[in-house]
Design brief:
29% strand, 2 helices, single chain, mainly beta
Length: 208
C-alpha cells in the first residue's frame, strides 16, 4: 500500500487514519504519521468526549509531497498514538513538520501523567481518500493466502542435498508433490506453491 501513496512525490495521495478508542480520560489526544526515519512527521489530534466509552475517530491527512519515504522491507512509515511524550516531541497539529521526532501535539492529553489511567485501541486502519470506511475484516484463510504470496515453506523428510543442488525426498515425502527419478534414483519433486507468488521466487534448500 505504501508504494501506492506516492509520498515524497507531487502526486502524493490524501490518506485517512481511523480507529476505535476508549480511555478513562477525556479531552484532546494526539498522534502522528511519520516516515521511517521520523524526519517527516504530521502531528494530528482527536477527541474523546466520554470516559470509558468506545469512540470512533477519523483523521484525514494530505499526502507528503517531499521527504524520503522508503519502499523496502526495513520499514516505510509509522502511525503513532501519543500517550505522553515530552514537550520536545510535540508540535502543532495539521501540517508536515521538517524537524525530526514530533510524535504528538502540544497541550494534548498526557495519559502517563495520570495514575492508573487507561487507553484502549482497536480496528486501526489507514486508507487512501478523505473518508473512513468500515474495518476490513478478513478471514484467516484469506490473510494466510496473501502472506503466502511472499513466502511459503514446504518440508519433506530429512534427506541430504545431492551434489547437483536439487532438493529431493522419497516417494513417501510429506510434501505430497509429484516428480521424477534421476538416473541415480534420486527423487526430484515438483513443488506446487499454495498460491500465485508476488514475483519469481528464490528457493532456499533446508532440512526440516
Amino acid at each position: 500500500m505504501v508504494d501506492d501513496l506516492d509520498f515524497g512525490k507531487a502526486t502524493a495521495k490524501t490518506v485517512t487514519i481511523s480507529a476505535w478508542v476508549r480511555s478513562s480520560l477525556t479531552g484532546t489526544f494526539s498522534g502522528a504519521l511519520a516516515n521511517f526515519a521520523c524526519t517527516r512527521c504530521y502531528p494530528f489530534t482527536f477527541s474523546i468526549a466520554s470516559a470509558n466509552t468506545w469512540t470512533q475517530i477519523s483523521v484525514t491527512i494530505a499526502g507528503d509531497t517531499t521527504g524520503t519515504w522508503p519502499i523496502d522491507n526495513n520499514g516505510s512509515m509509522f502511525v503513532i498514538f501519543d500517550l505522553g511524550n515530552g514537550s520536545n516531541y510535540r508540535s502543532t497539529a495539521g501540517s508536515w513538520q521538517t524537524t525530526s521526532g514530533y510524535y504528538g501535539v502540544t497541550g494534548s492529553v498526557s495519559l502517563v501523567g495520570t495514575t492508573s489511567a487507561t487507553f484502549d485501541i482497536t480496528g486501526v486502519q489507514m486508507e487512501i481518500g478523505s473518508s473512513a470506511t468500515l474495518f476490513d475484516r478478513r478471514s484467516f484463510t484469506h490473510e494466510l493466502s496473501m502472506c503466502q504470496r511472499y513466502f511459503c515453506k514446504n518440508c519433506g523428510p530429512d534427506y541430504p542435498t545431492p551434489a547437483n543442488g536439487f532438493a529431493y525426498g522419497g516417494p513417501q515425502s510429506s510434501t505430497g508433490s509429484s516428480g521424477t527419478y534421476s538416473a541415480s534414483s534420486a527423487y526430484l519433486p515438483w513443488i506446487a506453491f499454495p498460491t500465485t507468488m508476488r514475483t519469481t521466487p528464490s528457493v532456499t534448500i533446508i532440512n526440516c
